[in-house]
Description:
The structure holds two protein chains of two kinds.
Chain A: H1 8-13, H2 28-41, H3 43-46, H4 66-80, H5 108-112, H6 121-129, H7 142-154, H8 158-171, H9 174-181, H10 185-197, H11 204-209, H12 217-227, H13 234-263, H14 267-271, H15 283-293, H16 305-311, H17 316-329, H18 333-340, E1 341-343, E2 349-351, H19 357-366, H20 371-378, H21 384-393, H22 397-407, H23 410-417, H24 425-436
Antiparallel strand pairs in A: 1-2
Chain B: H1 18-33, H2 38-57, H3 76-91, E1 97-101, H4 103-112, H5 115-120, E2 123-128, E3 140-145, H6 149-165, E4 170-175, H7 181-189, E5 196-200, E6 206-209, E7 212-214, H8 219-226, H9 233-247, E8 252-256, H10 258-273, E9 285-290, H11 296-299, H12 305-313, E10 319-322, H13 324-327, E11 333-336, H14 342-347, H15 352-371, H16 378-415, H17 418-430, H18 434-446, H19 451-464, H20 470-484, H21 489-498, H22 509-520, H23 523-534, H24 542-549, H25 578-589, H26 596-601, E12 606-610, H27 613-617, E13 627-633, H28 638-651, E14 654-659, H29 665-670
Parallel strand pairs in B: 1-2, 1-3, 3-4, 4-5, 7-14, 8-9, 9-13, 13-14
Antiparallel strand pairs in B: 6-7, 8-12, 10-11
Helix pairs in contact in B: 1-2, 1-15, 1-16, 2-15, 6-7, 9-10, 15-16, 17-18, 18-19, 18-20, 22-23, 23-24
Subcellular location (chain A): Cytoplasmic vesicle; Early endosome; Late endosome
Protein name (chain A): Spermatogenesis-defective protein 39 homolog
Keywords (chain A): Cytoplasmic vesicle, Endosome
Amino acid sequence: xxxxxxxxxxxxxxxxxxxxxxxxxxxxxxxxxxxxxxxxxxxxxxxxxxxxxxxxxxxxxxxxxxxxxxxxxxxxxxxxxxxxxxxxxxxxxxxxxxxxxxxxxxxxxxxxxxxxxxxxxxxxxxxxxxxxxxxxxxxxxxxxxxxxxxxxxxxxxxxxxxxxxxxxxxxxxxxxxxxxxxxxxxxxxxxxxxxxxxxxxxxxxxxxxxxxxxxxxxxxxxxxxxxxxxxxxxxxxxxxxxxxxxxxxxxxxxxxxxxxxxxxxxxxxxxxxxxxxxxxxxxxxxxxxxxxxxxxxxxxxxxxxxxxxxxxxxxxxxxxxxxxxxxxxxxxxxxxxxxxxxxxxxxxxxxxxxxxxxxxxxxxxxxxxxxxxxxxxxxxxxxxxxxxxxxxxxxxxxxxxxxxxxxxxxxxxxxxxxxxxxxxxxxxxxxxxxxxxxx
Amino acid sequence: xxxxxxxxxxxxxxxxxxxxxxxxxxxxxxxxxxxxxxxxxxxxxxxxxxxxxxxxxxxxxxxxxxxxxxxxxxxxxxxxxxxxxxxxxxxxxxxxxxxxxxxxxxxxxxxxxxxxxxxxxxxxxxxxxxxxxxxxxxxxxxxxxxxxxxxxxxxxxxxxxxxxxxxxxxxxxxxxxxxxxxxxxxxxxxxxxxxxxxxxxxxxxxxxxxxxxxxxxxxxxxxxxxxxxxxxxxxxxxxxxxxxxxxxxxxxxxxxxxxxxxxxxxxxxxxxxxxxxxxxxxxxxxxxxxxxxxxxxxxxxxxxxxxxxxxxxxxxxxxxxxxxxxxxxxxxxxxxxxxxxxxxxxxxxxxxxxxxxxxxxxxxxxxxxxxxxxxxxxxxxxxxxxxxxxxxxxxxxxxxxxxxxxxxxxxxxxxxxxxxxxxxxxxxxxxxxxxxxxxxxxxxxxxxxxxxxxxxxxxxxxxxxxxxxxxxxxxxxxxxxxxxxxxxxxxxxxxxxxxxxxxxxxxxxxxxxxxxxxxxxxxxxxxxxxxxxxxxxxxxxxxxxxxxxxxxxxxxxxxxxxxxxxxxxxxxxxxxxxxxxxxxxxxxxxxxxxxxxxxxxxxxxxxxxxxxxxxxxxxxxxxxxxxxxxxxxxxxxxxxxxxxxxxxxxxxxxxxxxxxxxxxxxxxxxxxxxxxx
Lengths: 439, 677
């Protein structure tokens, strides 16, 4: 998520951050001299514009207002006296993919040359790039318009490409414009981006995106329903369908729970008041909520974990992780236990998990499970080394002692005895094992 | 002693040494903060590790800059130029005025001018552009903005609201760094073109440090690579032109990427349009590189100090805000992070595991310096106070800050199982145990841990594996949408379009088979096979590139982070950043000769050009030839900058990094999000 910048304002308006601003206590003279030197070398910025440009507003010219303009004027005069110029031209390189020009044989420039303000497409594009006066009205035939567009694309200046496209948008019918853009990918992408920015065009996903602008949940749900008929790919269609179903159910659950909570009927809401509405939350968050507040409900209700699991095709692993998190949060260790317990046909129970038990331990620990609970799961970790390391991490003494006992590792037991408190039950247990075992 | 959470045993030297150093740093603030005898006991605790720490300080920190490394040009000129032009533009609207500044421009503006400067030029009140109706009572409004449709739309609303109200004001928009026709078109459409005057503030380049210059255009990446909009190409060309005019003339330019090529052309045209003057060049060589040539590097977790600080606290425009957990007070403070900060300057390029040792050594030296006082007479004390104390206090302040930051970063990273995360990343880079990596990512998603992190790992998987198998793609996408919201459909569509997260097409299954076969056959054969198939489509070809350029050192070799042997140290020895490796290779070969296969796998668009004949024969071997300006189009990371600094030290070169913005994995991926209203 994008981080907010709530402090910008304060930062800007306050003066206490002064320490980090650019130090302007420099010697004014050197400053001016250096600035001048730098300005001197950027001739194109300072240079007087062509005479024909008198219509145009010049951005950096020499009106003597204050020190800066003065320095600029000084600059302009000094530039004219500069000496020899080294040839430093660089080669033009082919900037692929150059688009096929749909131009016919005759040269357009020959048509345009002569009148002062009739520029060729090339000249026009160049002028536009340089911010000089230009005119697009002369490009009236479809062919001229396209030549202009192709020239803009060849100049690879997105600003100019978009400017030409805006002109084409105004002077060509939609059908004609799109027909031509289909074969001009670069121009097409500029056009789509422009329409996106002025919020005119809605491509498939952009249409779906509009739901984000709808605050009212019922209207949003109805809008999502209308999206179902859009031609999404099969996969995406399923996701959009899920989105609609999810919001539909969240609205029902929210209305119900809000009512139950305010009436004070259910203990769970009294003990753990809801922090936020469930509306517009992801599927897994909804499942967690359901495992938290609606555990044990029959799968006939929309709010039951089983129903959510089935409706949204949630994997076993995912279901277990979410359920575990919710029940552990509630310290419902019995429920946690039941999640892993399976019975075989003889009635013996065994603990199974689709994810490694070291992960289960980690999750339980993050939910502050007591050592008694933790060590039961640490014991189920298959890898002995990992088991010991987890047991040490969470101070499950019994697990460590038993493991060393089973490994008949006397040395490690002696070392471990040194780590536990003298006289504690763990200490006595180690003592007992050490004295019972034969060397 | 307080027990820290157990940390996975590092199985090779690449892993972080969190454990021991962590204890030290957790204790350390007390050591340097106390002025009384208390520190003695703490010193005792620290002593146990002193051996380890002492030797680490003799590592890379001691790297002396080669004597023949040239001096960097003075970039503060760029700031003055920008400031002077801004003042000039403000004077174009004489009289008192209120100034509305686009949020993104505030920090850059603050680096070159201050409120006093603005006030001196009749700016009355300053506001941030917030897209809301305004409250200003001034009859002149000036807007300092980026050329964005959204902002111009808002200004149109402001002006039209005034009109409806019968209120008369003067309006001026200053676009930075340039205006776009689309913006002016909007003014025209809204019937206010002329009521509002427009201008351009050519503030292309902001020097963030001695060797970093930023265009501060984070949207460059999305606009160019996702939307396919080339609006910033000329901007990049102009920025380069400005550098060429002030610090050139350049004699050689190398580059790779479509945008780089276009920027080069734009620059060349601008050079031709203007006139050149003979002057001594300060910068001789330029390397242009598109961000999409190497998308793997910015998606890796940063473990070099400056990069890590950026990943965790986000450095903005060279400034970072440290919260109470760092300052150990109830206040946050903003700190400039650059070479002026002597402590930071020494640790910024270091692998995080090396930083503790350095900081502790520093702290001990500081303590010794303070302790000198005890045996002093009045006169000596006076000298001490006037000459040394100020410096010591300053150092003390900086040291506490960076120790606090290190401590806070380590706490956070330990909490999120950073060790395991890094292990997965390294496996992906190596192409080792990919199934395990996928399960790890899946679980990351299932547990709803940080959305951006999940996305980052998915993209790394896709980039390194040339796309995901269709069944993996579908399953991971479905789980992602379940965990983080279905509206991320938009994000997936963007990631696909950019090639960050793609599904392997049926035709590409050959490549999958080939990579499996490749594991059975030797590396060389596999390389050839991959290369043969790679010409088919635009793919990342990461594995083949990795082999060809030796980007991923063998994992069984030890990598001593104290004495880095190559640029891989910035990723704990696991990976040499592709971007920097290309730069190294091209500079070494003085062009792309011998790298044909590599460029083919990178989809071409490479170039190497030299100034015309008259220029080249007059050229002498000057310092400028050893100063290389590297321009990243689409952003670069602090880790890459560190890698280039390392390369520079090794080769006696100096690199100047020009970037459209400083980026990292989070910024890059957040720019792909569309799921907010």
